[in-house]
């Protein structure tokens, strides 16, 4: 069981500064940090593009003239990858016409060097205001680390549901972050200042669970003779029932009645007490299947499942893995004061490994790697050892293509009984090319011919 209230501290705006002049970059960083902005500084457009996905800035300030990719090239890439991200260009007097053209292409504005401090800060404030920072749309979901379109879709559903008092059922495999989504809904709702109460339906005995939820009659509990349960204690806030599928059937019956009437009856008492808390339920199990087996009440299912949000597994949002890894390493650095990083090939391994335990398992592996790595750079060998042999479940593109091609050839030879001419026609390939494909994948037509 966990009870918390909303943290009133606001998140600092994040600014990515890009300039190939180390001196100017340092000056820009000092000025921005003096105004309590969180700043990441890089010296090239390529580094900036790599940093955006990890750092998730609210604003980018970039020099116009840089080697390899200039500020305009960076602007165009950012518009494609992160539309809506505001960009301010820094330019010398001789390149003002280029900067003007860039603003016409979507840049927020430009500043001429040497940049006057107050002018810089004025532009930054205006850009952040137009971008919507600080806003509920960022703060409410700040604990959910993602750049996955699929996860963004689920968060969109969550935000819409947060604007109502509807009960919500959040499903998903273990470790996907169902409780984080529930907390985000609470923060985005009108109940954000109320308590956020989490109770595990798995870890508590049936008798204790009933008392925890509904309260109990006690002679020492006050003038009304009853101890309040969590459904009452969370008045004005949110109650999260973790793994609701594990609720015993008698408790399910009592909960279904309480949700229907918005009233609770403490154990040992017939007196009903009002409930003013939103209920969110989470589960990793298929409730509709449990209903058919008689292990979950149909009336409770429909009272909980007013809004349904299914949180995707990590396998369906692999683009989030490098971002999550960086996030966990940053958490560890804040806790220990020691900043470690993965070697590029280690990140590649983590991004393609199987994660049956989802985000929770990834976090555990990152913490283990950071603890056991003798150097500041965590090697691929250490990552592979932690995940386990054979965990790299996502094949390379070439391997996946070869597997598909071989399976296709086997299927078509089975259909044609090993007749190469007919198989080549079905595949729309000439005989010579088709024989080359068979040879490459070590397939013999005679093995597929019908024997008398």
Key features?
5-stranded parallel sheet; Rossmann fold; 17 strands; 4 domains; alpha/beta; Helicase, Ruva Protein, domain 3; disordered N terminus; 452 residues; 6-stranded mixed sheet
* CA-atom Rg in angstroms: 29 Å
Q: How many individual helices?
A: 20
User: In whole angstroms, how far apart are the ends?
Assistant: 71 Å
Main sheet characteristics: 6 strands, mixed
Q: Mean pLDDT score, rounded?
A: 85
The CATH architecture term of the largest domain is 3-Layer(aba) Sandwich
Instruction: Give the CATH superfamily of the largest domain.
Output: P-loop containing nucleotide triphosphate hydrolases
The side-by-side strand order for the widest beta sheet comes to: 1-8-11-14-7-15
Brief sketch in words of this structure:
The protein has helices at 22-33, 45-55, 71-81, 96-104, 117-131, 136-139, 149-162, 178-188, 206-214, 230-233, 249-261, 287-292, 298-304, 321-336, 344-352, 358-372, 380-387, 397-416, 420-427, 431-440; strands at 2-4, 14-18, 38-42, 59-63, 86-91, 109-112, 168-171, 196-200, 216-217, 226-227, 238-242, 263-264, 273-274, 278-283, 307-310, 341-342, 377-378. It has 452 residues and is an alpha/beta fold.
